[in-house]
Fold this sequence. Notes:
Shape: globular
Mean pLDDT: 89
Radius of gyration: 19 Å
CATH superfamily of the largest domain: P-loop containing nucleotide triphosphate hydrolases
Order of helices and strands: EEEHEEHEHEEHHEHEHEEH
Distance between the termini: 33 Å
Strand content: 15-25%
Helix content: 25-40%
Largest sheet: 6 strands, mixed
CATH topology of the largest domain: Rossmann fold
Strand order of the largest sheet: 6-9-10-3-11-12
Amino acid sequence: MTSEQPGAVPDHPGPDEEPPLLRLRGVSKHFGPVRALTGVDLDIPAGKVTALAGDNGAGKSVLIKCISGIHAPDSGQMWWEGAPVHVRTPSEAAALGIQTVYQDLALCDNLDIVQNMFLGRERLRRTGLDEVSMENAARETLTSLAVTTVRSVRQRVASLSGGQRQSVAIAKAVLWNSKLVIMDEPTAALGVAQTTMVLDLVRRLADRGHAVMIVSHNLNDVFQVADRIAVLHLGRMVDVRPTADSDRQIVVDLMTTGESTRVVREPGRPV
């Protein structure tokens, strides 16, 4: 992939470059007369955190639902690991290695952590459920992600804090051999300490080689954890750039007007 310039999405990688894990080109989605997405281009590389920013109604939720198989795009093309794909259902997305953690987390309060992580995918043996195998796998996954605040994997989800619940939902996604983890507002309604815990977990996922895509209105979180920022405005991708080449005011301009003439101020240089 060629180096990114502000506002540009690389078209094709060079002959010696690896393709991004996920590539979108010209993705559009209409709901009757409403154009939710128009010609969206975006690359999601492995080992990086890509933040998706945009005002309410910009198309963020529709885009992640197109990627995760809930909505079928009306036009455009997706490539996964360099090969063209058509993701028609969430199960097809999961088979590729795409897992989405939505804002409601989809956890069952009356079940414990192990039961939630294996819900619908329970491991069986001749006499019933293989509880030991599932418990060990859940514990190993949480340990590998350095989730240390959970007292026991047999703890009921209803007793967990917001940050712990988010950590369990992320671990559940990682457990199923995910390559791309999409998170919708992962720090919404969390306190400062819990937000820090979740953002540290997001960073560890990318450092382990996962591609991570987060949707967030909190620009402080975005600039703390993201390697790249993609901005949607009225269904169009108006900018994709490294976080170091942007600042909060530029992102706000792009979110609200679709363009920005500001430049990033160099450290120590007066405004």
